[in-house]
């Protein structure tokens, strides 16, 4: 195949069968989010590069290696959004929306990161992002956990996901901790892989969530972030854990859980599944109490999470959860002879006017009758209407009821009222 007409590596086309799951998920997302009073927002796919650098942090993987940045015709540096929080905060500050009574938002759309494509990791992927502003107590952290838990239950995957939570304290706590961690890791420098060596002086916390088993063993002896977390963050976390348990939600306190973006503080959490391979985090989030201020807004605590839709769909496919078959064609119209084509079109338009929910297919292909009928049967049509010279001359149509294996003639009026009864359950 000609390489020039292939999609970009890590960017995929999505076809009808998979999109049925996506549409089904979107309905559940909207229902559940609305029941918690979240409002939808739609944001640009491109922002100024500078705001990502400032908010996400210059030495994070996302900014260092993963951003799709380019110059526009005026030489401004722009970036395809690698995540949604930054654009959301920018939009709320710019539109002066942080002070209004609406403070809970969601969005769904594509994100772009230049990563090594593999199962569950793509260069264009989709996230459902959820953000809440203005609340600093653990009640809202709890609500996010309850909300995500409810989503999993509605989808039917709750027993295949585990919740991991941690507190990463404040930025100052982490500066102190980082020093100790680096001192510890320097002793094992010769055992670190290339990725970890690179992160040792740039982003050492990220080493904590390495997938390398040998390095994980070394980390078992490492100082714990927990011991550097300030007392107020500690209490916030303790209360949150208690409340989560009181709702019967199981969690693991993963003391090595950190986030890849700089703006997080205190609570961080991930929902993981062991059924989709190594890229196992389906949902990740946490607090970002300082981001709004850092981006030029007034001090506003915040918390959010994002669900990776492709990974969620992978899990659903793995578990065979969504088994809705491709929907049938209700009425399949076959005309015999080109000169009868518009008679078929007119009839189909008339049926659509009367019964807008029916799926009506006209076969426009230049095929013989036998082939057209075979196609109608193979595409699970319910009834076929045949229109030839004889039918038009006599003013009736030949109907083939495929389900009931019957065949009969009907006048147009009879046909229209027959359709009404036949597809009562649809209209
Ligand atoms: P990871 O550690 O897997 O790279 P992350 O910490 O970079 O994840 P976030 O930025 O928190 O991820 O994004 C939230 C969710 O979005 C992830 O848990 C995952 O489900 C999904 N996600 C992130 N990056 C990708 C990607 N490149 N392809 C597909 N899904 C992704
Ligand atoms: Mg990542």
Strand order of the largest sheet: 1-5-6-11-10-9-7-8
CATH topology of the largest domain: BirA Bifunctional Protein, domain 2
What structural category do the secondary elements indicate? Answer: alpha+beta
Summed up, the domain count is 2
Beta-strand share of residues: 15-25%
Helical amount among residues, as a percent range? Answer: 25-40%
Low-confidence stretches: none
Tell me the overall shape.
elongated
CATH level 1 name of the largest domain: Alpha Beta
Tell me the radius of gyration: 28 Å
The CATH architecture of the largest domain can be named as 2-Layer Sandwich
Bound molecules: adenosine-5'-triphosphate, magnesium ion
Which homologous superfamily in CATH is the superfamily of the largest domain? Bira Bifunctional Protein, Domain 2
Task: Give the biggest beta sheet.
Answer: 8 strands, mixed
| Quaternary organisation of the protein chains | single chain
Mean pLDDT: 93
Ends apart, CA distance between termini: 45 Å
Family: Belongs to the class-II aminoacyl-tRNA synthetase family.
Subcellular location: Cytoplasm
GO molecular function: ATP binding; histidine-tRNA ligase activity
Pfam families: HGTP_anticodon, tRNA-synt_His
């Amino acid at each position: 195949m000609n390489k020039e007409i292939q999609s970009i590596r890590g960017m995929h086309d999505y076809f009808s069968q998979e999109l049925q799951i996506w549409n089904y998920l979107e309905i559940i997302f909207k229902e559940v989010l609305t029941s918690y009073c979240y409002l939808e927002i739609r944001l640009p796919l491109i922002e100024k590069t500078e705001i990502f650098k400032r908010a996400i942090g210059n030495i994070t993987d996302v900014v260092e290696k993963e951003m799709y940045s380019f110059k526009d015709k005026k030489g401004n540096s722009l970036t395809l959004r690698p995540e949604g929080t930054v654009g959301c905060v920018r939009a709320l500050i710019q539109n002066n929306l942080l002070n209004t009574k609406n403070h809970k938002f969601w969005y769904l759309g594509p994100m772009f990161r230049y990563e090594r494509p593999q199962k569950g990791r793509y260069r264009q992927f989709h996230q459902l992002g959820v953000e809440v502003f203005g609340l600093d107590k653990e009640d809202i952290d709890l609500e996010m956990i309850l909300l995500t838990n409810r989503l999993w239950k509605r989808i039917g995957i709750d027993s295949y996901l585990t919740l991991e939570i941690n507190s990463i304290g404040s930025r100052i706590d982490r500066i102190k901790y980082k020093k100790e961690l680096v001192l510890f890791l320097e002793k094992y420098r010769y055992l670190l892989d290339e990725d970890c060596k690179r992160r040792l002086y740039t982003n050492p916390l990220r080493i904590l969530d390495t997938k390398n088993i040998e390095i994980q063993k070394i980390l078992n002896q490492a100082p714990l972030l927990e011991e550097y977390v300030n007392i107020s963050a500690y209490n916030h976390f303790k209360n949150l854990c208690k409340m989560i348990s009181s709702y019967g939600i199981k969690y693991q306190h993963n003391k090595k859980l950190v986030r890849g973006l700089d703006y997080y503080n205190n609570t961080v959490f991930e929902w993981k599944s062991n059924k989709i391979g190594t890229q196992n985090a389906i949902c990740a989030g946490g607090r970002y109490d300082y981001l709004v201020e850092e981006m030029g807004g007034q001090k506003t605590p915040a918390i959010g999470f994002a669900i990776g839709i492709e990974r969620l769909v992978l899990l659903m496919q793995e578990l065979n959860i969504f088994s809705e078959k491709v929907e049938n064609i209700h009425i399949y119209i076959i005309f015999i002879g080109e000169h009868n084509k518009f008679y078929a079109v007119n009839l189909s338009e008339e049926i659509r006017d009367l019964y807008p929910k029916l799926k009506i297919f006209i076969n426009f292909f230049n095929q013989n009758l036998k082939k057209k009928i075979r196609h109608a049967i193979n595409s699970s049509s319910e009834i076929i209407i045949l229109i030839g010279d004889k039918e038009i001359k006599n003013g009736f149509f030949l109907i083939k009821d495929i389900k009931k294996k019957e065949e009969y003639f009907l006048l147009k009026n009879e046909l229209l009222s027959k359709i009404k009864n036949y597809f009562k359950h649809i209209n």
